[in-house]
């Protein structure tokens, strides 16, 4: 009797595994039409080029500051 019970448990486990795989297969099949539609749909047009930098602010347009040269006699 115990061997029959062990076989029953093994069959139950195998049946549960098969049911799980069948559920996964069903989910994949449900997703298949939308995946096919995505595959055959033409790709979207390329994005337009990004606009260049806008007008520069006043600090960026002004010439760089120039410090007068330092002589050794200025330091001490």
From TrEMBL:
Organism the protein comes from: Leptonychotes weddellii
Keywords of this entry: Coiled coil
Stretches of the chain forming a coiled coil according to its record: 1-28
Biased composition (Pro residues): 41-54
Name used for this protein in its record: Small conductance calcium-activated potassium channel protein 1-like
Location of region: Disordered: 38-76
């Amino acid at each position: 009797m115990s061997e029959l019970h062990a076989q029953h448990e093994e069959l139950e486990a195998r049946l549960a595994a098969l049911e799980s795989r069948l559920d996964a297969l069903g989910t994949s099949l449900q997703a298949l039409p939308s995946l096919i539609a995505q595959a055959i749909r033409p790709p979207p047009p390329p994005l337009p080029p990004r606009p260049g930098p806008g007008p520069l602010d006043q600090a960026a347009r002004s010439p760089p500051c120039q410090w007068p040269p330092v002589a050794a006699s200025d330091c001490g």
